[in-house]
């Protein structure tokens, strides 16, 4: 079985999780930035990772997956700055199921990542009280994803791989 771990990252949070997942995969495997691949051909299992940007899955990731997922075993991993268990996470997980509709959806891992300081600064300047509140949450994300979240990502990878053996 050949596995691809591909990801989009802006601040390194998603790459950190990608590397943890990649490290747990047995057998033939590749890890690549999503901008460096053109399709999922030749892979039996694909992990796709991304950060949540402006409270949504990045459009380029969504489009790429929809165009290439047919017939593929696929799992997702995402990083975000919201606390785990927050309401928007269910919506994002539902969206991964939607974009993988023509493939074999195996699951989604999500964890908190550190909110970058330039984003915190931008949010704090917003006139929107919701955006400002989100910016105020920034310091609580410092150091995420931490070792416990990285370990959960590794466990997720093992569980997904076991589903397709």
Automatic annotation (TrEMBL):
Region (Disordered) residue spans: 136-165
GO molecular function: FMN binding; menaquinone-dependent protoporphyrinogen oxidase activity
Domain Flavodoxin-like: start-end pairs: 4-156
GO biological process, one term: heme biosynthetic process
Signal sequence segment: none
Domain of life according to the entry: Archaea
Pfam families hit by this protein: Flavodoxin_3 (PF12641)
Protein's recorded name: Flavodoxin
Organism annotation: Methanosarcina lacustris Z-7289
């Amino acid at each position: 079985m050949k596995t691809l771990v591909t990801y989009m990252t802006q601040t390194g949070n998603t790459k950190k999780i990608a590397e943890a997942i990649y490290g747990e995969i047995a057998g033939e495997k590749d890890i690549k930035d999503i901008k460096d691949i053109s399709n999922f051909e030749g892979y039996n299992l694909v992990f796709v990772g991304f950060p949540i940007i402006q409270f949504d899955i990045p459009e380029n990731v969504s489009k790429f997956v929809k165009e290439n997922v047919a017939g593929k075993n696929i799992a997702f991993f995402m990083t975000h700055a919201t606390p785990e268990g927050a309401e928007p996470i269910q919506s994002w997980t539902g969206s991964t199921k939607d974009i993988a509709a023509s493939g074999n959806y195996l699951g989604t891992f999500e964890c908190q990542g550190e909110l970058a300081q330039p984003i915190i600064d931008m949010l704090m300047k917003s006139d929107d009280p919701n955006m400002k509140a989100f910016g105020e949450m920034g310091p609580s994300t410092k150091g995420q994803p931490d070792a416990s979240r990285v370990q959960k990502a590794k466990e997720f990878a093992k569980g997904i791989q076991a589903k397709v053996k």
